[in-house]
């Protein structure tokens, strides 16, 4: 039965009886920004239409408590730029750069003439491998994933929290690959981050109370492709998916009174878990 209330212009699933005092668009409690008289919407505050009190002391916030930015793909663009720069470097330098930056647990590299890998102390490979590509189709597919899904997730979390999400997703994907894959099996690509964004998107859709059936279908198809295509590091995909979902759940469900403590504390706990797995695996390999 319909209540007759309007729905928030930013959150169509939320009914509200409050409107922006400037543009009169309906806004929910999450979008309300205190003004000298009544409340204003994030758009009016962002464009400077609001009062000095609203525009200064009360910044519009995302569902996770981050600041609403004019450019919702700022961090996404930086991440794609890093991937592009490294891809060009690989095209110029060739396989030598790939040998130095790809995720390898523990192996002898004929190209370098020495033992290499994370277990040999090259922990940077856990991160460099997440922005490293060697083939054009692989690069293009992952960049499209970052652009499309990142463009949906970043505005919902805010820049800083989105950056933490990408970092932990990539590291969690590398950690599971390091734990399960053969020590001498190389792995590279931003797929762990992309699947972390997929996990984040699913959590956000559930938090917004959207219809989860198309979301579940999307996640299911992504996993189906993961396990049916040859040459795919399913470990990085699954690790990124789980890591991204856990981080996002903590970000959007943290209580308001201790929001930052719970959010960043959860990120630190997941990072500590990844580190513990990496150290235990290294001890087993050496």
Q: Can you give a write-up of this model?
A:
With 286 residues, the protein is mainly alpha-helical. The protein has 2 domains: 6-57, no CATH class; 74-285, Up-down Bundle (Rhomboid-like fold). The protein contains 11 helices and 6 strands. It has helices at residues 42-46, 52-57, 74-93, 95-101, 125-128, 136-157, 159-180, 191-207, 212-228, 234-253, 259-285; strands at residues 6-7, 15-16, 33-34, 39-40, 107-109, 114-116. The strands form 3 sheets. It has a two-stranded antiparallel sheet. A two-stranded antiparallel ribbon has the order 3-4. Strands 5-6 form a two-stranded antiparallel ribbon. The longest helix is centred in the C-terminal third of the chain and has 27 residues, at 259-285. The protein is elongated. The termini are far apart. 38% of the residues are buried. It is a multi-pass membrane protein.
SSE topology:
Elements: E1 6-7, E2 15-16, E3 33-34, E4 39-40, H1 42-46, H2 52-57, H3 74-93, H4 95-101, E5 107-109, E6 114-116, H5 125-128, H6 136-157, H7 159-180, H8 191-207, H9 212-228, H10 234-253, H11 259-285
Antiparallel strand pairs: 1-2, 3-4, 5-6
Helix pairs in contact: 3-6, 6-7, 6-8, 7-8, 7-10, 7-11, 8-9, 8-10, 10-11
Helix count equals 11
Strand content: under 5%
Overall 3D shape:
elongated
Uncertain segments? 50-57
Radius of gyration: 22 Å
* Intertermini distance: 65 Å
Q: Might you state the CATH topology name of the largest domain?
A: Rhomboid-like fold
The chain-level mean pLDDT equals 88
The succession of helices and strands, N to C, reads EEEEHHHHEEHHHHHHH
Total of domains: 2
**Helical proportion, percent range:** 55-70%
In the CATH hierarchy, the architecture of the largest domain is: Up-down Bundle
């Amino acid at each position: 039965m319909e209540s007759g209330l309007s729905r928030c212009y930013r959150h169509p699933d939320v009914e509200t009886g409050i409107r922006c005092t400037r543009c009169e668009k309906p806004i929910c409690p999450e979008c309300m920004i205190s003004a000298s008289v009544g409340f204003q919407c994030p758009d009016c505050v962002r464009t400077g239409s609001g009062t000095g009190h609203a525009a200064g002391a009360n910044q519009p916030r995302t569902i996770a408590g981050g600041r609403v930015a004019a450019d919702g793909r700022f961090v996404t663009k930086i991440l794609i730029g890093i991937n592009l720069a490294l891809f060009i470097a690989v095209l110029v330098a060739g396989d030598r750069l790939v040998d130095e930056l790809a995720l390898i647990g523990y192996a002898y590299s004929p190209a370098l003439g020495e033992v290499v890998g994370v277990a040999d102390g090259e922990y940077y490979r856990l991160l460099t491998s997440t922005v490293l590509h060697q083939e054009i189709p692989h690069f293009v597919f992952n960049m499209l994933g970052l652009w499309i899904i990142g463009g949906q997730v970043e505005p919902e979390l805010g820049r800083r929290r989105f950056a933490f999400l990408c970092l932990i997703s990539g590291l969690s994907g590398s950690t599971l690959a390091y734990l399960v894959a053969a020590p001498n099996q190389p792995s590279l690509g931003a797929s762990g981050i992309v699947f972390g964004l997929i996990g984040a998107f699913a959590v956000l859709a559930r938090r917004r109370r959207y219809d989860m059936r198309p979301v579940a279908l999307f996640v299911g198809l992504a996993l189906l492709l993961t396990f049916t295509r040859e040459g795919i590091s399913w470990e990085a995909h699954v690790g990124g998916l789980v890591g991204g979902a856990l981080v996002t759940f903590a970000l959007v469900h943290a209580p308001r009174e201790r929001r930052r403590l719970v959010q960043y504390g959860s990120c630190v706990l997941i990072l500590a878990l990844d580190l513990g797995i990496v150290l235990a695996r290294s001890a087993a390999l050496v």
